[in-house]
Amino acid sequence: MSTHHRTGGLVDGFGRVATDLRVSLTDRCNLRCTYCMPEEGLDWLAKPELLTGEEISRLVRIAVTTLGVREVRFTGGEPLLRRELVDIVREAAALEPRPTLSVTTNGIGLARLAPTLREVGLDRVNVSLDTLDPARFKAMTRRDRHADVLAGLAAAVEAGLGPVKVNTVLMRGVNDDEAAALLAWCLERGYELRFIEQMPLDAQHGWQRSEMITAGEILTALRAAFRLDPESGRGSDPAERWLVDGGPGTVGVIGSVTRPFCEACDRTRLTADGQIRNCLFAREESDLRAALRGGADDAEIADRWRAAMWTKKAGAGIDDPEFLQPDRPMSAIGG
Ligand code: SAM
């Protein structure tokens, strides 16, 4: 394989171009979703290891103004736990060309923050919600915060952060009976529901292929209650989308395991401690924090970022028997 170009965007050896940046702002979270984190939490990154707000803003600027990134999504951990979020969004919104800005959140605290985030330039939010039942929510997340999430969702629409997307992970025998009910509930409120297949990214390494609710199963459950017609033009969207009962409402299914979309992937990821990952499932990272703190100029940082993306693998291979789970869990990489 030849080496990467020293100018231009984030191209890999297979010709894919990354224009969508996921930034993890923190590995901490105020929920303990069973498929993500153990009850006691994890060994959080220490403060000096975390990028500062200024360091994050600088990397976002380089990504947008030099490397062709057009969309920036802030995630974690729980991004709303990071106080600098508002400043980071404001600075990103002032960049030319203006990137699309969104946040993936569990919705706790969004009721309070949504108007401010909108004001400083946030475009959209994705809110994670796995159940309509408060008792189930408490069992699945180990926190009694269902009402806060619903309030956050409503506030996001009110603030103009729409179309609001809802992310749902179904677990066998836990909430897999709610697929159709969740869709009806979201359609009624104008939320765009997307189901995500459970991936082997939990800190506990408890994921089992047989226990995962597949995209196929989700579609079967939905078709028992709705007519689904495929929408064309998926592009680099990981979700396959269907028009529900003739539209205009839609539903998405992200079949990360059974229907991988690696050939269309346009993602590049920055972890909260300043590592570039070219794939959620990569087993290597490239350290931009050391470069930043070692005094590297923008050109050198951009070049390291290009080099990190160049080696992106053709596919994540989650469904391969030889698949190895990455060393870091989803909460540390940024979901
Ligand atoms: N805390 C924020 C939230 O709840 O949206 C952002 C980070 S969270 C890791 C991002 C998304 O990843 C959530 O929708 C969550 O349900 C999902 N997620 C976490 N672990 C997962 C897993 N093992 N498989 C699939 N999705 C997962």
UniProtKB/TrEMBL annotation:
GO biological process: Mo-molybdopterin cofactor biosynthetic process
InterPro entries: Aldolase_TIM (IPR013785), Elp3/MiaA/NifB-like_rSAM (IPR006638), MoaA (IPR013483), MoaA-like (IPR040064), MoaA_NifB_PqqE_Fe-S-bd_CS (IPR000385), MoaA_twitch (IPR010505), MoCo_biosynth_MoaA/MoaC (IPR050105), rSAM (IPR007197)
Enzyme superclass (EC): lyase
Known catalytic reactions: GTP + AH2 + S-adenosyl-L-methionine = (8S)-3',8-cyclo-7,8-dihydroguanosine 5'-triphosphate + 5'-deoxyadenosine + L-methionine + A + H(+)
Pfam families xrefs: Mob_synth_C, Radical_SAM
Pathway listed: Cofactor biosynthesis; molybdopterin biosynthesis
Cofactor: [4Fe-4S] cluster
Residues that, per the record, bind [4Fe-4S] cluster 1: C29, C33, C36
Record-listed [4Fe-4S] cluster 2 binding positions: C262, C265, C279
Record's cofactor remark: Binds 2 [4Fe-4S] clusters. Binds 1 [4Fe-4S] cluster coordinated with 3 cysteines and an exchangeable S-adenosyl-L-methionine and 1 [4Fe-4S] cluster coordinated with 3 cysteines and the GTP-derived substrate.
Entry binding sites for GTP: R22, R73, T104, K165, R267, T268, R269
EC annotation from Swiss-Prot or TrEMBL: 4.1.99.22
List of residues binding S-adenosyl-L-methionine: Y35, G77, S128, M199
Keywords of the record: 4Fe-4S, GTP-binding, Iron, Iron-sulfur, Lyase, Metal-binding, Molybdenum cofactor biosynthesis, Nucleotide-binding, S-adenosyl-L-methionine
Coiled coil in keyword set: no
Record's function text: Catalyzes the cyclization of GTP to (8S)-3',8-cyclo-7,8-dihydroguanosine 5'-triphosphate.
Family indicated by similarity: Belongs to the radical SAM superfamily. MoaA family.
NCBIfam families, sorted: moaA
Subunit comment: Monomer and homodimer.
Official protein name in the record: GTP 3',8-cyclase
Source organism of this protein record: Embleya hyalina
